[in-house]
Amino acid sequence: MADDLRSLFRIDGKRALIVGGYGGLGEIVTRVLVAHGAAVAVAGRSREKADALAAVLKTEGAEAIGARVDIADRQSAHALVDDVVQRLGGLDILVNLAGIDLEADADRFPENDWRQVLDVNLSGAFWLAQRAGEAMIAARTGGRIILFSSTRSVAGGRRGFAAYAASKGGLNALVKQLATEWAKHAITVNAVAPGFVPTELVQQTTMDEAFKQRMLARIPFGRFGTPTEMAGGVLFLAAPASSFVTGQIIFVDGGVTSSS
What we know:
This protein has 260 residues and is of the alpha/beta class. It contains 10 helices and 7 strands.
C-alpha cells in the first residue's frame, strides 16, 4: 500500500508528447513531467527550439527528442504523432499547449484572423488528439490527453476575444465529447484552464502597471499564478492520481471563474 501511495504522482516509463513544450509555460510542463519519470517528445513550430531543449534534457539524464509540427495542418499533426510513437516506442500522454490569440472588435473581426485562431486552437487540438487517441486505442494500454483551455472559455472579456473565446469554449466541449467516446478504452481526456500567468513574453508585451492592477483586482488570491502551478495541474491529470477523472476542465486561476 505504501508503495502505491508514493506512486500516485509518478509517471515512470510513460512516453509524453508536449506540443508547445519549449515555451515559457511549456518548458516548465516538460520539465515537471521529466522530473516525475516520463520520456518526452518536445514539439512546436520551431524544430530548432524543440531540439535545443531536448538536448539539454538529455544532458540532465532524461530521454528526450525534439520535433516540428504545424498543428493547424491535419497531415502535419498526424505525422508528428506517428513519428513520436515510432521514436519513443509508443505514446501514453499527450499535452497540447500550442495556441494563438488574435484580437479585434467583434464587429470588425477579420475573416482570416478568425479562421487562423480556430484552425490552431480548436481544429489543431483535435487533429493531435485524434491521432493520439487512435494510437492509444490501437496499443490497448489506455492513455492521457491533456489540452489547454482558458478562463476565457467561460467568460467574455472587454477586449476583442471573439475568436479566442469561441475556440476555447469549443475546446471545452471537445474535451467532454472525446472523454465520453474514449473512456471505454481507458483514455482520459481533460483540460487545464490557466488564469493569467505573467510569463516573460507576456510581461514584455502587455504588462504595464495599470493593466497589472486591473488583472490582480479580479483574482481572489490577490496574485498571479505561476507556470509551476499550471504544470502541477498537468502532472495531476497525467498521473495515476487522476485515473478516474475525465471530461473535466481544471481551472487553475486563483478563484477567478468561481467569483465572476
